[in-house]
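Figure 3 (text version): structure tokens given as input.
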């Protein structure tokens, strides 16, 4: 944790908190009449960018997206609001937490459609990662989110290692045995 002396290079969470609200128009819908997941992802990327770039004071790119579970469908005519805040900062990367809600204008019923975490990296003019300001945490929720995000980052690193460690048997017969209970048919 930093001392008061170097807090000039720090910014509070509220400095970059961002909300985008968008009306769900018919051209956003799929064949089932619900809003395309890709439309929501695009809006999430947009709000993550605004929030990250404000905190970083620099251009940012999306490095990774952590868990996107669509909890409820979004209907045409609803108002979708995406609330973003910086939850965690590293050296050149930061994690933006995004809560997405959808509101029916007539009934005022509000649905929580998903919560996701975007890792964004700040870049300089030469396209190299550049250091970002530290984060000033002003309440218990912000402290909790920072700790959770740090743990999320650790879990992801372990998960990436586990994926890298996956080994496939060299013997093809052994491979086929591993698939014995799966719903696939090996034809050779
Ligand atoms: C993401 C990217 C910047 C990483 O570049 P890199 O040269 O590997 O940079 P580094 O290894 O120095 O990592 C820089 C930071 O990014 C983080 N990072 C890199 N890849 C990451 C990933 N997949 N997930 C989460 N964080 C990641 C690192 O942990 C590091 O954070 P820190 O400085 O806070 O400790 C680079 O791969 C890139 O530009 N990717 C393309 C991004 C893009 O085009 N996005 C879509 C359109 S915006």
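Below: residues designed for each position.
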């Amino acid at each position: 944790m930093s001392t008061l002396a170097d807090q000039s290079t720090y910014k509070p969470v509220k400095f970059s908190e961002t909300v985008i609200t968008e009306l769900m128009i018919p051209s956003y819908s799929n064949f089932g009449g619900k809003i395309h997941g890709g439309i929501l992802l695009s809006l999430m990327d947009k709000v993550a960018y605004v929030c990250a770039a404000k905190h970083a004071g620099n251009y940012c790119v999306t490095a990774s997206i952590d868990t996107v579970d669509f909890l409820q469908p979004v209907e045409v005519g609803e108002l979708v609001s995406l609330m973003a805040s910086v939850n965690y900062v590293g050296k050149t990367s930061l994690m933006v937490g995004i809560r997405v809600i959808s509101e029916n204008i007539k009934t005022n019923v509000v649905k929580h459609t998903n919560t996701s975490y975007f890792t964004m990296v700040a870049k300089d003019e030469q396209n190299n990662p550049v250091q970002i300001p530290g984060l000033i945490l002003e309440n218990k929720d912000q402290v909790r989110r920072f700790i959770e995000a740090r743990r999320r980052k650790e879990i992801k690193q372990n998960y990436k290692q586990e994926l890298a460690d996956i080994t496939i048997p060299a013997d093809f017969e052994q491979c086929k045995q591993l698939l014995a209970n799966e719903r696939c048919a090996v034809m050779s």
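The helical segments are 13-16, 37-56, 140-164, 172-178.
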